[in-house]
Amino acid sequence: MPKESGKVRMYVCGPTVYDSCHIGHARSVVVFDVIARYFRSQGFEVTYVRNFTDIDDKIIQRAAMLGVDPKDLAEKYIREFHQDMDALKVDRATVEPKATDHIPQIIRVIRLLMEKGYAYAADGDIFFSVTAFSGYGKLSGRKLEDMEAGARVDVDARKHDPFDFVLWKSAKPGEPFWESPWGTGRPGWHIECTAMSSEYLGQTFDIHGGGKDLVFPHHENEIAQSEAAFGQPFVNYWVHNGFVNINQEKMSKSLGNFLLIRDLLKEYHPEALRLFLLSSHYRSPIDFTPQHMEEAGAGLDKLYTLLERTQTVLGTDDFEIKTESGDHWARFCEAMDNDFNTALGIGVLFEAARQINRLMDEATAAVGNDFQQQLMRQLRDIRKIGAVLGILTESPKDYFEGRQARLQEKKQVDVATVDALVAERTEARKSKDWARADAIRRKLEAMNVLLEDRPEGTAWKIR
RNA sequence: GGCGGCAUAGCCAAGUGGUAAGGCAGCGGUCUGCAAAACCGCUAUACUCCGGUUCAAAUCCGGAUGCCGCCUCCA
Question: Does A407 reside within a domain?
C-alpha cells in the first residue's frame, strides 16, 4: 500500500452507541488499531479519527424504551466502548468526535449541498439527490437502474429517487433536536462522517475504514455527499474488514448468538482475542469458535513461554538493545506492506520464536557475548512485531499468573491441594521413589494440573 | 432479480505465473528418573470440478458446483 509524504490520515466509522460492543466491533477496532500502529512503526505521523454516532433512530428508540435521555444512553455506551477497548489494549484514536458536537459543521455541509443543487427539501427534511451526482455507485459497483429499490422497505414518496437519502431529519415531538436553517431537527446518518472527516482530516484524505457492511449504502453516500460538496476526491484507499461468524453462523440478534467483548474477556486473555482476530486477513470472514480461541491462546502461551525462557537465559528483561532490527522484522513489514497481511505476519512471528528457541537449545554452558547479542537482536524483532499487533505487552510473570488465576476458577483447581501434592512429590523424588512421584503426577493430571520439573524446582500449570 | 466474495492437509490459515508459510492436532526422535517445555523429522504426487491460455497455473481466462455476504439498521 503506497504512502504519502510522512503522514497518514485515516477515518474509521465507529459505533452507534446504543448497545454494548460485540466481537464484530472488536475486529474492526483491532484491525484498524494494528494498521495505525504499523504506520507509526514505519515512522508515519498518523492522524486517526474514529467517530461515535451518538444521535440516531436506534438511540432514540432504545432510550424511549428504557425511559432515559438519549444523551445519557449514548454517553453510557461511549464509556463502555472505552472500557472494552482499553481492556483489549486498543490505542485511543487521535480524535474521537461525536456527531452531536459537530452540528454546525454538519449544517454547513448540508447548506453547501443545497446551494450546489445536490440536495432538496421536502417538508422539514433535506434529501441528497443521488441522480445529481454522476459517480453514484462507483465504490460498490452498483448502478442505480440495476438495484431493486424498495424490495424490502417501502420507499418514501417524497424522494425524487428511491436511493436518495436523508441529510437532515425534522424533529418529531419528544425527540432531541437542534436548530437549523430548515427548522429544528437532527442530522441523518451519513452526513456526520463527511462533516467530521473534513473537519479533522481535510476534504481529501488517505484511508477510510469500516466494516464490510458499510460499503453500501453508507460509504457510497459519504463519497457522493463529500465529493458533491467539496468538488474533490474523498479518499484514496478504502479498507473494509470482514465479519465475524459464530460457529459458522452469521452473528445476529435474531439468532441470539452475538458475543459481547466484556463477556469474552472474562474467559479469554485480551491478547488471545487479538491474536485470533488477526489470524486471518482483515477482509476474510473469520469464524469464532471456542476451539479457535483455545488455539489462539495456545499460541500466545507459546510466545510467552519463549519470553520467560529468554528472560531466564539473559538474566534480565531490561536490556538496552544496540543492534539493528533483524530479518524477522523485515519480513513482518513485508507482510504488512502487502495489504496488512497480519496472518502472514503472525507466521513470521512464530518462525522467529522457533529460531530463538533453537538458538537457546544449541547454546552450551559457555554463553558468550555474541550469543547474547544475537539473542537480543532477535528478541527485539519479536517485541517490535508484538508491539504492532498489540500483544506480548505483559511480563511473562504477570501473564502466567493471570492465566493461572483465570483457569483456577474455570477448572476448579485448589491451589493448596496442588501445592501439598507437589511438595509430597518433591519429597518422593528426593528419595528416588519414582513410583510414588509418578502416581502423584497422574493424580494431578486428572485434576487438570501439569507439572514441569525445572532446574530450580517444580512448576505447575493448569491445562 | 441485481452486485460482490470465498472454495488450499484432520482443523485454522498464508500464497496474486515457476512447483505448496505458519499455527493447532497427530506420529517418530533428541532431551528427561518419568514427564513438561523446546528443538529435529514426518504428515497436500487431484490446491472444489471441467475446459482454455502458457515452456510453466492453487495463482490468469471461460464454464460448472457449493457456501457466504450486500442490496434494510448493522463492525
Answer: no
| Nucleotide nearest A305 (Cα, C1') | B37
Residues A56 and A181 in one domain: yes
Q: How far is the CA of A81 from the C1' of B73 (A)?
A: 19
| A24, A114: one domain | yes
- Determine, yes or no, domain membership for A266: no
ipTM of this complex: 0.93
- Which of the listed residues A366, A394, A422 is the one where a domain comes to its end? A394
Which nucleotide is closest, CA of A351 to its C1'? B22
**Full domain range(s) for residue A354:** 289-394
Nucleotides of B under 7 A from a protein CB: 1-4, 6, 11-16, 21-25, 32-40, 68-75
Give dist(CA A258, CA A131) in Å, integer.
38
Which alpha helices (DSSP H) does A278-395 contain, by range?
290-314, 327-337, 342-362, 369-389
A291 CA vs B62 C1’ separation (Å): 40
User: What's the total number of domains in chain A?
Assistant: 3
> In this complex, which residue's CA is closest to the C1' atom of nucleotide B21?
A347
C-alpha cell at A62: 432504545
Name the CA dihedral angle for A343, A349, A355, A357, rounded to a multiple of 10 degrees.
-120
Each residue's pLDDT expressed in tens, for chain A with a length of 463 residues: 555 678 999 999 999 999 999 999 999 999 999 999 999 999 999 999 999 999 999 999 999 999 999 999 999 999 999 999 999 999 999 999 999 999 999 999 999 999 999 999 988 899 999 999 988 888 887 777 766 554 555 677 888 888 899 999 999 898 999 999 999 999 998 999 999 999 999 999 999 999 998 998 899 999 999 999 999 999 999 999 999 998 888 887 766 778 899 999 999 999 999 999 999 999 999 999 999 999 999 999 999 999 999 988 887 666 555 567 788 999 999 999 999 999 999 999 999 999 999 999 887 655 677 888 888 889 999 999 999 999 999 999 999 999 998 888 888 889 999 999 999 999 999 999 999 999 999 999 888 899 999 888 899 988 8
